Amino acid sequence: MKKVAIYPGSFDPITYGHMDIITRALNMFDELIVLVAYNPNKHYLFSVEERVEMIYEVVGKNNGQLRIDSYSGLLVDYAKKVGANVILRGLRAVSDFEYEFQMALMNRRMNKDVETVFLMTGYQWFYTSSNLIKQAACMGGSVKGLVPDIVNKKLMEKFGRPKGRVK
Length: 167
Known about the structure:
Blueprint: E1 4-9, H1 16-26, E2 31-37, H2 48-59, E3 66-71, H3 75-82, E4 86-91, H4 94-110, E5 115-120, H5 130-138, H6 149-159
Parallel strand pairs: 1-2, 1-4, 2-3, 4-5
């Protein structure tokens, strides 16, 4: 049986922590779907289309093992639709686990045929999150080295170039 995993997230924006999970997952699964989630109750910096395009620019479009998609419904419904049997969730720290564990149990209750697999991000990315990166970039801080260059460029376009610090 083909092992198809879905790696869902907002990816607003994609970070090197996300890339670490994607790279390692490609060695574990036959197919990986990076699923850009959309929740109409949340505010995003980048549109779904922009997030999908950034991921394509970072990972490339010619990897037959990797697919990028977007979805706004229940994750287990999407999994059934595409024939996925694994939901992949990245963890940075123990604090992520409680929420992710609750989500995994709820997903399992709704579809017992889909397993959730937790994968710790590399230690150098434990402290990074899309929210922290957006906050730093918004205030003119450098996020170079935390996100791919194309993402850094798009963040600078959204927030404008740093203008210097207020004294």
